[in-house]
Amino acid sequence: MPDTKSRLITPEQRLSTIPFEVSETSGDHSFTNIRLENYARLPYVDLNLPSMDHHVMIYNYNPPSSTVHYHCGGQHYNGIWQPQAVALLPAFQDNQWLIPESDSGTLHILFPYTAVNKVIQESFDLDPDTLELQSLFDAQSPVLQSLSELMFREMQDKFASGNLYMESLANAAIVHLLNSYSNKAIQRQAHSGKISPQGLQRLIRFIDEHLSQKITLDQLASQLHMSSYHFCRAFKLSSGYTPHQFVILRRTYTARQLLISSQLTPAQIAQQTGFSDQSHMNKQLRREFNMTATQIRA
User: Fold this and answer.
1) How far is Cα 275 from Cα 247, in angstroms, rounded to an integer?
2) Whether 8 contacts 51, CB under 8 Å
3) Which residues form the HTH araC/xylS-type domain (predicted)?
């Protein structure tokens, strides 16, 4: 086997290596644990790629009808991809592809090796060097299919829901991959249960003070000195909301209050409360109050 770690390429170098254009990426967004690459209309593919320090999950939303040939880490796969099936290319593995058909569509979901290691340490209390993800070719996983579809929709919506939403989806996908497609049976660490009222108040203060900024999962978890995984579970148990749902709720109620009490324009309020734009703010106002910004201010 070649010394793949000496030949590692970055995701950006991979894009410059492949002889065709990616349709869109999440490169301009500062997600800490995920990167998306959409290939809406692949050409005939015959590639031999060096390895990366990223795990790559491939969501086949429009697979080719012909046989796909895939080689990764000493494993050979030949077969027909099913719609919404998932493939997985583990980090540090050279890989070869032959897709003898054009116009198929796939979403590549990249998880940094360091982000996966962090989940292994925090969620399972294991040495990351002892745990490896398996290569997959045509996995039928309802969980991964649902998470991939949500990521794909968010990409099509220009990531309007923000970092917290995407990073939460990524964290859920990583945990499921480790639970279902690794080289050993693992168990999640027990967590202590609910967050104290004082802890919730500290979180609310932090969220309100940073509404105009991107709020990440790691930032919220660090306020309570918890791992991202345990924080998500404890927060939902304590508040009834996911962290992303709660932050959106705080943004929406603050926007409504500013529409009533300030002279700021709706566009200024959207920016001040951390919405991607006025349209996204109106969408949440309609969902919560059944009113647009103009109707609230009237």
Assistant:
1) 11
2) yes
3) 201-298
For the stretch 27-70, pLDDT in tens is 888 899 999 999 999 999 999 998 999 999 999 999 999 999 99
Q: Alpha-carbon dihedral of residues 270, 197, 120, 215, nearest 10 degrees? A: 10
- Separation between Cα atoms, residue 241 and residue 87, nearest integer Å: 31
Is residue 189 assigned to a domain? no
Cβ atoms 273, 212 nearer than 8 A: yes
- Domain at 118, CATH number: 2.60.120.10
Same domain, 73 and 18: yes
Domain match, 257 and 231 both: yes
- Does residue 23 lie in a domain region? yes
- Please say if the pLDDT value at position 128 is more than 90: no
Q: In the Cβ-directed half-sphere of 45, how many Cα atoms lie within 13 Å?
A: 27
Amino acid at 188: R
Contacts of 71 (CB under 8 A, 6+ apart): 77, 95, 96
Mapping DSSP to helix (H, G, I), strand (E, B) and coil, where does residue 101 land?
A: coil
Domain count, the chain: 2
Q: Exposed, middle or buried, 183 (CB in 10 Å: 0-12/13-18/19+)?
A: exposed
pTM of structure: 0.87
**Which residue range is the domain that position 240 belongs to?**
197-297
Residues 108 and 17 in one domain: yes
How confident is the model over 33-44, as pLDDT tens digits? 999 999 999 999
